[in-house]
């Protein structure tokens, strides 16, 4: 559990170079750390609606859960704009039969940021748990057969079909292949969560004291043009087509009760905000937009 | 400077004789007491600020660990204050020069001369103290040796500054400033070559604009961070 203090901003693409140079000078970090993460947003599959009983804790909420893993892909140069009719931007499919890499998944649930007037920055508690996921249960012979037989797997995001296929083809191979292909998804399913969306993040990260400065673009799956996604790769497009960079400046405090540290962190963030105000204006994000509770009406 | 404060009578030379013979009540109307009094206040101020500065420095010398030496900017400020105070004293003294030069000071008959003899001699002293004399002579000697080294006195410096200022004014009056181009540049723009260059520049500018439009997908406004956050937290925009 960490208590996160944060501020946000955005810059147009043509200010990228200037911003990077300035931050390099400010932080003294010539080689900023690259960020490339892949995130699945999942939601509890069954609605939990306890009976209202006086005298008991009745404020029970269900939260969206983010599942984050690394996305190793060097084909994207973040300093170049991503154009609609330009080079195809794609990401390797993660859930492929031949993918044997050990993946570290971080499951993250975040509380809605603290309410209140006159706050220096956004304050939010984030809960995380890390899971190392390997596909160890499948033997290799099976996998070869699977490769020949079924190569046109759809991407996992269309998650509805698997159930049908499981019912239809009673072959154990297929079932196993399915499991093999999507074993993390099976795990999620067992956990009671279903994937509702996915996004990729590509960017860079600076460190300034205890403050982390992230500059990134959000990419999503491009379904507008067919056949651009291959069996190996998924075509991506920008979430924000104006090539705008998002900036997030945050600081983690290990305990939400450590008021001294929180005040100190807030002061540091405000100092940075003041210092960078001519480069980009850091704002307090609206807590309503950061609400990751599942509303019961849906 | 009322009579109760100082047991001295001050008068200008032309009225001295009458007062000695008749002992009339002292007449202060001719004396600019306000400005003279302000000299005393100023001197007091200077004394105080010098004392304060000296205390700080001495304190540091005595206990280098406990008391910190004032910062550079503090010294600078203090020095600035001292200069203003000295200038103001100098101007008051200068404007009352005649009066002060021609004034004679003497005790009135009811002053306890024998009891306050020490005070009396101090107050009536006109000659500078020997150490003050020493300061004056060393300062003078120093400035003379410096001016001898540079072989140019202050007056010459002033003259040079005046001349420079006049020359700059004169030179500036010969020019008129409009726009952002020199005459040569404007002439060049009129020629065919110049026109060509301007055209090229404009094209370059257009290209850049086009690229920008392409880059932002037709000047689309970027999503607000809040919208992006919403997507990242809830999977929807």
Automatic annotation (TrEMBL), chain A:
Gene3D superfamilies assigned to the protein according to its UniProt record, in alphabetical order: Hypothetical Protein Pfu-838710-001 (2.40.320.10)
Subcellular location: Nucleus
GO MF assignments: transcription coregulator activity
Gene Ontology CC, one term: core mediator complex
UniProt KW Transcription regulation keyword: yes
Subunit structure: Component of the Mediator complex.
The keyword Nucleus belongs to this UniProt entry's keyword annotation: yes
Signal peptide: none
Coiled-coil intervals: none
Name of a matching Pfam family: Med18
Family, per entry: Belongs to the Mediator complex subunit 18 family.
Name of this chain's protein: Mediator of RNA polymerase II transcription subunit 18
Gene responsible for this protein: MED18
Keywords: Activator, Nucleus, Transcription, Transcription regulation
InterPro entries per the UniProt record, alphabetical: Mediator_Med18
Described purpose of this protein according to its UniProt entry: Component of the Mediator complex, a coactivator involved in the regulated transcription of nearly all RNA polymerase II-dependent genes. Mediator functions as a bridge to convey information from gene-specific regulatory proteins to the basal RNA polymerase II transcription machinery. Mediator is recruited to promoters by direct interactions with regulatory proteins and serves as a scaffold for the assembly of a functional preinitiation complex with RNA polymerase II and the general transcription factors.
GO biological process: regulation of transcription by RNA polymerase II; termination of RNA polymerase II transcription
UniProtKB/TrEMBL annotation, chain B:
A GO molecular-function annotation: transcription coregulator activity
Stated family: Belongs to the Mediator complex subunit 8 family.
Quaternary assembly: Component of the Mediator complex.
Sequence segments annotated as region (Disordered): 1-32
Assigned GO CC terms: core mediator complex; mediator complex
Protein's name in the database: Mediator of RNA polymerase II transcription subunit 8
Alphabetically ordered keywords of this record: Activator, Coiled coil, Nucleus, Transcription, Transcription regulation
Matches recorded under InterPro entries: Mediatior_Med8_fun/met
Subcellular location: Nucleus
Polar residues bias (residue ranges): 1-22
Recorded coiled-coil stretches: 194-221
Chief localization: nucleus
Functional description taken from the UniProt entry: Component of the Mediator complex, a coactivator involved in the regulated transcription of nearly all RNA polymerase II-dependent genes. Mediator functions as a bridge to convey information from gene-specific regulatory proteins to the basal RNA polymerase II transcription machinery. Mediator is recruited to promoters by direct interactions with regulatory proteins and serves as a scaffold for the assembly of a functional preinitiation complex with RNA polymerase II and the general transcription factors.
Pfam families reported for this sequence: Med8
Domain of life: Eukaryota
Annotated GO biological process: regulation of transcription by RNA polymerase II
């Amino acid at each position: 559990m960490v208590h996160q203090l944060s501020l946000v901003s955005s810059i147009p693409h043509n200010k990228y170079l200037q911003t990077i140079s300035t931050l390099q000078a400010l932080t003294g970090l010539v080689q900023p750390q690259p960020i490339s993460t892949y995130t699945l947003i999942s939601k509890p599959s069954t609605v939990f609606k306890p009976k209202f009983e006086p005298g008991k804790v009745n404020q029970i909420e269900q939260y969206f859960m983010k599942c984050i893993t690394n996305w190793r892909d060097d084909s994207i140069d973040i300093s170049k704009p991503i154009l609609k009719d330009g080079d195809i931007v794609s990401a390797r499919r993660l859930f492929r039969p031949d993918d044997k890499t050990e993946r570290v998944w971080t499951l993250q649930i975040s509380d809605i940021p603290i309410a209140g007037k006159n706050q220096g920055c956004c304050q939010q508690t984030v809960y995380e748990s890390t899971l190392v996921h390997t596909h160890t249960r499948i033997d290799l012979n099976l996998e070869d057969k699977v490769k020949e037989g079924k190569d046109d797997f759809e991407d996992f995001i269309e998650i509805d079909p698997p159930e049908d296929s499981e019912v239809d083809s009673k072959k154990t191979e297929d079932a196993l292949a399915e499991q093999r292909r999507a074993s993390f998804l099976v795990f999620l399913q067992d956990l009671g969560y279903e994937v509702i969306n996915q996004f990729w993040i590509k960017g860079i990260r600076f460190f300034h004291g205890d403050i982390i400065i992230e500059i990134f673009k959000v990419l999503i799956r491009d379904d507008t043009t067919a056949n651009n996604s291959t069996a190996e790769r998924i075509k991506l497009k920008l979430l924000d087509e104006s090539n705008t960079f998002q900036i997030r400046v945050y600081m983690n405090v290990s305990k939400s009760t450590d008021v001294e540290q929180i005040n100190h962190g807030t002061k540091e963030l405000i100092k940075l905000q003041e210092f960078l105000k001519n480069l980009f204006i850091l704002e307090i994000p609206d807590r309503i937009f950061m609400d990751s509770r599942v509303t019961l009406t849906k | 400077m009322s009579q109760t404060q100082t047991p001295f009578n001050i008068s200008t030379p032309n009225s001295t004789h009458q007062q000695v013979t008749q002992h009339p009540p002292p007449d202060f109307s001719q004396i600019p007491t306000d400005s003279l009094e302000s000299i005393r206040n100023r001197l007091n101020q200077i004394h105080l600020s010098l004392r304060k500065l000296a205390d700080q420095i001495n304190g540091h010398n005595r206990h280098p660990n406990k008391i910190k030496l004032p910062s550079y900017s503090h010294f600078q400020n203090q020095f600035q204050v001292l200069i203003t105070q000295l200038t103001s004293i100098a101007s008051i003294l200068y404007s009352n020069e005649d009066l002060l030069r021609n004034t004679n000071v003497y005790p009135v008959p009811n002053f306890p001369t024998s009891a306050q003899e020490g005070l009396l001699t101090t107050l009536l002293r006109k000659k500078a103290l020997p150490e003050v004399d020493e300061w004056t002579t060393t300062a003078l000697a120093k400035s003379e040796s410096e001016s001898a080294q540079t072989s140019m006195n202050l007056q010459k410096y002033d003259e040079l500054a005046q001349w420079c200022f006049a020359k700059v004014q004169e030179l500036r009056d010969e020019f008129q400033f409009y726009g952002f181009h020199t005459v040569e540049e404007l002439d060049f723009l009129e020629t065919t070559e110049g026109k060509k260059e301007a055209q090229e520049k404009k094209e370059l500018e257009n290209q850049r604009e086009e690229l920008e439009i392409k880059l932002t997908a037709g000047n689309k406004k970027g999503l607000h961070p809040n919208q992006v956050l919403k997507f990242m937290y809830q999977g929807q925009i």
